[in-house]
Recover the amino acids of this structure.
């Protein structure tokens, strides 16, 4: 069968005539001259080599071939409208999926308002939350596993943009029976000679959480950990100390460990991170929602 290239304008004109069964009314609908409508239909018939309309001086009727083409033309028009609509929605980031990373030591409840707000605003975008391994403080951004992430800087991840959303204190975590728990507020000097819990992760991130900048030297490690729960166990059972966000302290208070403020160290922030080179409108929309809903909410 020979391929036929149908002009969408001719199909649209024919469909108007098929639905009105009147050249004049079809011309009014399409804002064309009646002669142009007639000419379009004749060209379409010549292209297909079939009669689509049975014309008399008073009536216009569809031939059997015209009935079939009218139905297909109607479906094509509906599909075209749907294609344009869905294409524009995709361009606005209203459909598809978005992978959101969650770095270690960020409880979902802390950022849930932003996630829920985004889901409510774009219900047809499937939001997939992915908890990153302890060894990946970038939340999955470093290797492109996610589109956007919540993380705690500093992280060594090239090409990642960060925007602070939530600020909270870093707290010292100690065994509940440790002598330092007798003090209400600690200094980093109080912890310098204590055994710390270390981890095999991003050195920049590890240095921040062991306060290397404030102490001026790497920590002495009593044990190695691979999760936040591992840190709690190291404190309980190995006598280690460490630093945790205030939100983590609230989660595990009264479980064999104690927490104290440290006066002379900088706070930690929860940032939203993304690759600026990304042109995905869902990423831009999610960052905007996170900025609006969460920034900047201090937790002390």
């Amino acid at each position: 069968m020979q391929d036929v290239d149908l002009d969408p304008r001719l199909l649209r004109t024919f469909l108007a005539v098929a639905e009105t069964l009147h050249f004049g009314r079809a011309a009014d609908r399409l804002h064309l001259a009646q002669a142009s409508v007639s000419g379009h239909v004749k060209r379409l018939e010549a292209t297909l080599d079939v009669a689509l309309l049975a014309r008399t001086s008073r009536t216009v009727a569809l031939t059997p071939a015209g009935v079939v083409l009218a139905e297909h033309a109607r479906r094509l028009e509906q599909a075209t409208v749907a294609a344009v609509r869905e294409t524009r929605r995709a361009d606005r980031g209203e459909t598809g999926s978005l992978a959101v990373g969650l770095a270690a030591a960020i409880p979902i409840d802390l950022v849930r308002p932003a996630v829920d707000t985004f889901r409510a605003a774009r219900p047809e975008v499937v939001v997939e939350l992915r908890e990153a391994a302890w060894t990946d403080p970038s939340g999955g951004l470093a290797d492109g596993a996610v589109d956007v992430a919540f993380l705690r800087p500093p992280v060594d991840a090239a090409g990642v943009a960060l925007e602070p959303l939530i600020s909270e204190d870093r707290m010292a975590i100690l065994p509940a029976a440790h002598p330092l728990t007798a003090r209400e507020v600690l200094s980093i000097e109080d912890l310098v000679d204590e055994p710390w819990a270390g981890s095999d992760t991003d050195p920049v991130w590890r240095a921040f959480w062991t306060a290397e900048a404030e102490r001026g030297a790497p920590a002495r490690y009593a044990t190695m950990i691979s999760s936040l729960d591992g840190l709690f166990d190291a404190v309980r059972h190995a006598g280690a100390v460490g630093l945790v966000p205030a939100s983590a302290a609230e989660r595990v208070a009264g479980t064999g460990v104690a927490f104290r403020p440290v006066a002379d160290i900088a706070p930690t922030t929860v940032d939203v991170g993304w690759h600026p080179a990304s042109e995905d409108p869902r990423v831009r929309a999610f960052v905007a929602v996170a900025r609006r809903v969460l920034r900047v909410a201090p937790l002390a």
Summary: The chain has a mean pLDDT of 89.
